[in-house]
């Protein structure tokens, strides 16, 4: 009897194990035919275009339909009408890089209520507005590394400024907060952050702001521009200025936009991650959410095609990986 019971119990155990593993295998499958939209900060920023390329590559591999829609300026509320349209269209998921952490919240909530899954990428919205935030790298690490690099370039001494994106950008503001924390350390006592200027992720405005910083602070030794639009505009300005090679410029840029400035000695080093991988990862995350495989809880895992397996961290954050530092020794190995 006991023997029989044990056999029955182990058969039941085995059966439930098989069911459980079948469920977990099936649970990782992404539904075909999903519609996944990417709403970047602005559509005419090369960085966003590369991220969009990663989204569309992944969605294609998943057998879904993707599109990239968005404003031509990175204004705080210019993304709202796009969210509303995508909600009406009943997209399965929206991947959004926010120009403002709060301005989009009520509209994203409405989209979620209507059944659209929300994934923030690159620049977060408030935690209430999305299930996941796909972050390019650890925000604290990005901020601190920018100051460390600047210190090395300007010999730890002198005035420097930050040329940021828009005043409300979640990502830049978070990085700047960590830059300021890093600057509290005694080793930076001879460095002074004199101004945070905003080029609004607009090429012309960033160019003019660079000129303004140089005029207002004649002793300026460096500029950190943690935006691909800002750093390339500042590099263009400096490349024809007598300060070329004297005023140190670093920040976050795409290798393709910065290559000529590295080669002609305007810039020594800068950093970034692969924006295409960021979009690719966000699209897989969106696919898994829309298929019910994950909900955004810390500890859940999912696979992202060629990028492998990811685990969701606290507050629904998923980190792509560590950034790369580019200089004249490695820039030619990168094409994005
Ligand atoms: C710009 C945007 C983007 C940021 C990069 C580094 O393209 O502001 O949000 O992540 O720079």
Explain what this protein looks like in three dimensions.
This protein has 336 residues and is of the alpha/beta class. Helices cover 42% and strands 18% of the residues. It is built from 10 helices and 14 strands. The strands form 4 sheets. The chain has a 6-stranded parallel β-sheet, sandwiched between helices. The chain is elongated and about 55 Å long. The structure holds alpha-L-rhamnopyranose. The site of alpha-L-rhamnopyranose has 14 residues, from helix 8.
Task: Please give a handful of descriptors for the protein shown.
alpha/beta, Rossmann fold, 2 domains, 6-stranded parallel β-sheet, 10 helices, 14 strands, elongated, disordered N terminus, binds alpha-L-rhamnopyranose
Write the layout of secondary structure elements.
Layout: H1 2-27, E1 35-39, H2 46-61, E2 65-68, H3 80-88, E3 93-96, H4 105-113, E4 117-121, E5 132-135, H5 139-153, E6 158-164, H6 170-183, E7 191-198, H7 203-216, E8 220-225, H8 228-239, E9 248-251, H9 255-263, E10 270-272, H10 275-290, E11 301-303, E12 309-311, E13 317-319, E14 324-326
Parallel strand pairs: 1-2, 1-3, 3-4, 4-5, 5-13, 6-7, 6-8, 8-9
Antiparallel strand pairs: 10-14, 11-12
Helix pairs in contact: 2-10, 3-4, 5-6, 7-8
- Order of helices and strands, N to C? HEHEHEHEEHEHEHEHEHEHEEEE
Q: List unreliable stretches of 5+ residues.
A: 1-26
Q: Let me know the number of strands.
A: 14
Q: Give the overall silhouette.
A: elongated
Overall CATH architecture of the largest domain: 3-Layer(aba) Sandwich
Strand order of the largest sheet: 2-1-3-4-5-13
- Tell me the name of the CATH homologous superfamily of the largest domain: Response regulator
- Percent in helix: 40-55%
């Amino acid at each position: 009897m006991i023997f029989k019971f044990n056999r029955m119990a182990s058969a039941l155990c085995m059966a439930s194990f098989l069911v459980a593993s079948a469920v977990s295998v099936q649970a990782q499958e992404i539904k075909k035919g999903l519609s996944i939209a990417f709403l970047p900060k602005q559509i005419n920023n090369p960085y966003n275009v590369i991220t969009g390329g990663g989204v569309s590559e992944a969605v294609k591999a998943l057998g879904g339909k993707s599109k990239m829609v968005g404003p031509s300026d990175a204004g705080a509320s210019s993304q709202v009408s796009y969210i509303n349209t995508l909600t009406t269209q009943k997209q399965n998921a929206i991947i959004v890089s926010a120009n403002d952490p709060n301005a989009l919240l009520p509209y994203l909530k409405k989209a979620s209520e209507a059944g659209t899954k929300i994934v923030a990428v690159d620049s977060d919205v408030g935690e209430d507005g999305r299930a996941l935030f796909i972050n390019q790298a650890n925000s604290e690490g990005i901020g601190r590394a920018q100051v460390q690099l600047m210190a090395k370039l300007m010999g730890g001494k002198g005035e420097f400024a930050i040329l940021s994106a828009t005043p409300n950008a979640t990502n830049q503001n978070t990085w700047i907060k960590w830059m300021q924390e890093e600057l509290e350390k005694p080793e930076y006592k001879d460095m002074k952050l004199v101004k945070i200027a905003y080029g609004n992720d607009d090429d012309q405005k960033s160019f003019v702001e660079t000129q303004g910083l140089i005029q207002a602070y004649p002793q300026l030794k460096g500029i950190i521009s943690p935006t691909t639009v800002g750093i390339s505009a500042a590099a263009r300005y400096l490349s024809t200025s007598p300060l070329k090679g004297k005023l140190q410029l670093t920040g976050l840029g795409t290798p393709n936009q910065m290559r000529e400035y590295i080669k002609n000695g305007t810039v020594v080093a800068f950093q970034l991650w692969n924006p295409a991988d960021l979009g690719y990862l966000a699209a897989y995350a969106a696919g898994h959410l829309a298929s019910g495989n994950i909900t955004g809880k810390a500890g859940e895992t999912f696979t992202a095609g060629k990028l492998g397996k990811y685990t969701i961290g606290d507050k629904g954050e998923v980190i792509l990986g560590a950034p790369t530092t580019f200089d004249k020794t490695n820039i030619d190995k990168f094409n994005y």
